[in-house]
Design goal:
By secondary structure, the protein is α/β, with parallel strands linked by helices. 37% of the residues lie in helices and 14% in strands. A hairpin with a 6-residue loop joins strand 1 and strand 2.
């Protein structure tokens, strides 16, 4: 039976869309549970996608980490003991399961279109939780030159640019790396801090500026803290936002992100 003109167009549109999706996210096995998938984000079954967990209250009003439900104040012990250089950090999802696979697909498998999802999600979270702050610009964590060449893009920069467009804010490359650092992925909390000590530099006059600092994930918080410290020295008030945050008890476990 021959297809009518309208049906024919719909069929070919569906065929093109399906093959386009399969080109970006090839059929295979769910990277989490092993179930066969026709396509996914990226190769993640819908069952695992449903298990994505957002950051829920109670969480620290400064660093954004989860706190015990019995906590009497809105600031965690770490932030009380050693206040961060940033005013506040917010994150949207827990770095586990499908969210972890999406971030790794973006950075390791070079599925760079994910920056749109990450950037738009961060911007929405900023509007919801920092809507009362008049930001002057968006900054981002720079990628070391060699890693940028190997990947072909700078993960935090693409996310920041999408976030800036969503928030109608200028995005500026004001943070510079002034020393060669090791990949953070194989380092524990203390080693990460030592690795990034003195790594960033900024020559901008940021007096009176509210800066929104963007990165993909918040692990130990060392990267955000060191970058914020430098921006604060230049006169800025720094507010940080990431797509996902790692649970504190998992910080010293082996990881493959950087």
């Amino acid at each position: 039976m021959a297809l009518k003109t309208g049906e024919s167009k719909s069929f070919f549109c569906f065929y093109f869309f399906r093959n386009f999706i399969n080109l970006i996210f090839p059929p295979g096995i769910c990277r989490i549970c092993g179930t066969k998938v026709n396509y996914g984000l990226p190769q993640i079954c819908f069952s695992c996608l449903k298990k994505i967990q957002k950051v829920k209250e109670p969480f620290c009003n400064i660093c954004g980490r989860a706190m015990a439900e019995t906590a009497e104040i809105g600031v965690c012990g770490d932030c009380l003991k050693e206040p961060p250089s940033y005013e506040k950090h917010i994150s949207l999802y827990l770095y586990e399961g499908a969210i972890r696979e999406m971030v790794l697909a973006y950075k390791v498998l070079k599925r760079y279109p994910f920056y749109r999802i990450f950037g738009k999600s961060i911007a929405k979270n900023v509007k919801n939780k920092m809507g009362n702050i008049a930001f002057d610009l968006v900054a981002f964590i720079p990628t070391p030159f060699i890693r940028r060449i190997m990947r072909g893009f700078s993960p935090a920069e693409l996310i920041a640019k999408k976030c800036g467009r969503e928030l109608n804010l200028p995005v500026k490359n004001i943070l510079k790396l002034k020393k060669r650092t090791k990949p953070q992925k194989n380092l524990g909390a203390k080693e990460r801090k030592e690795n990034l000590k003195g790594a960033f530099d900024c020559k901008e006059d940021l007096r009176g500026k509210n800066v929104l600092l963007i990165d993909d994930i918040f692990t130990t918080g060392t990267t955000i803290e060191e970058a914020s410290r430098i921006l604060k020295k230049c006169g800025a008030k720094v507010y940080a936002a990431t797509f996902a945050i790692r649970k504190k008890r998992e910080i010293d476990l082996p990881s493959i992100e950087d």
